[in-house]
UniProtKB/TrEMBL annotation:
Name of the molecule in the record: L-asparaginase, type II
CDD domains assigned to the protein according to its UniProt record, in alphabetical order: L-asparaginase_II (cd08964)
Keyword Cell membrane among UniProt keywords: no
GO biological process, one term: asparagine metabolic process
Lineage: superkingdom: Bacteria
Molecular function (Gene Ontology), one example: asparaginase activity
Keywords of the record: Hydrolase
Species assigned in the record: Sutterella wadsworthensis 2_1_59BFAA
Stretches assigned to the L-asparaginase N-terminal domain: 2-85
InterPro entries: AsnASE_II, Asp/glu_Ase-like_sf, Asparaginase/glutaminase-like, Asparaginase_C, L-asparaginase_C, L-asparaginase_N, L-asparaginase_N_sf
Length: 217
C-alpha cells in the first residue's frame, strides 16, 4: 500500500500532486517495495507509514520521519531503498478489524503548565477505554494529573505515555509510573500511539500485553 497526497492544489503554480501520483504508481509496481509495510511517497521521498509525520503547515517537504529517517528516495524515475522497517507491520500483524464497526474510544491528553486532572477525569467519565498522555520531555506527567491516570489504570483503562516534543523515545522508567501500570509509547507520537492502543484494545486490556505490542509495532 502506498499513501500519497499533495500540499499544493492542482490550480497552483508548480503543483506537486501529479508527480507524487506518478511516483506512487511506480513505487507500488516495484517488486523491491514488497514487504516494507505501508509506504508514503511524497516530494521524492519514500517513508514508512509508521514513522512519517507532517512537520509543516504548507511546505511541500512537510512529511518527515524524525530520528528514524526515510526508507529511501525517488530520483530519475527510479526507487532507491536505504533500509527496511524493523517493527511488525501489515501482513505480520496480529490485529483483524474486518468485523468491527468501530475501534475502542481512546483520548489524547496534552500536558501543559498548571495541568490538573480535569481532562483525565472527563475522559474516564466519557467512557474512554484508553488514554494517551502527551507529556513534556520524556513522557513526564504533571503531579496533579498523575493520580487521575493511576486511578484510570485501576479501573481497567490503559494509559500510554507519549511525548508532545515530536521526536525521541519515550522510556521514562520512573518507579511510580511503572508501579501505576503506565505503558511506554516508545517512538510513536501521540496520534499514532492512539491508533496502536485502539488496535491493542480490540485484543486485550492487559497492560503487560499492550506493552508488548508497543515494543513490537
Amino acid at each position: 500500500m502506498v499513501v500519497i497526497g499533495a500540499m499544493r492544489p492542482a490550480t497552483a503554480i508548480s503543483a506537486d500532486g501529479p508527480m507524487n501520483l506518478l511516483n506512487a504508481v511506480k513505487l507500488a509496481a516495484d517488486s523491491k517495495a514488497q514487504g516494507r509495510g505501508v509506504l508514503v511517497a511524497l516530494n521524492d521521498q519514500i517513508s514508512s507509514g509508521r514513522d512519517v509525520t507532517k512537520s509543516n503547515t504548507t511546505n511541500v517537504a512537510t512529511f518527515k520521519s524524525p530520528d528514524l529517517g526515510y526508507l529511501g528516495y525517488i530520483a530519475g524515475g527510479k526507487n532507491y531503498f536505504l533500509r527496511n522497517p524493523a517493527m511488525r507491520h501489515t501482513h505480520q500483524s496480529e490485529f483483524d478489524v474486518s468485523k468491527l464497526d468501530k475501534l475502542p474510544r481512546v483520548d489524547i491528553l496534552y500536558t501543559h503548565a498548571s495541568d490538573d486532572r480535569v481532562l483525565a477525569d472527563a475522559a474516564i467519565a466519557a467512557g474512554a477505554k484508553g488514554i494517551v498522555h502527551a507529556g513534556s520531555g520524556n513522557g513526564s506527567v504533571h503531579g496533579q494529573t498523575e493520580p487521575a491516570l493511576a486511578e484510570a489504570v485501576q479501573k481497567g483503562i490503559a494509559v500510554v505515555l507519549s511525548s508532545r516534543t515530536g521526536s525521541g523515545v519515550v522510556c521514562p522508567n520512573v518507579e511510580q509510573y511503572n508501579k501505576a501500570g503506565f505503558i511506554e509509547g516508545r517512538t510513536l507520537n501521540p496520534q499514532k500511539a492512539r491508533l496502536l492502543l485502539q488496535l491493542a484494545l480490540t485484543k486485550t486490556n492487559d497492560p503487560k500485553e499492550i506493552a508488548r505490542m508497543f515494543e513490537e509495532y
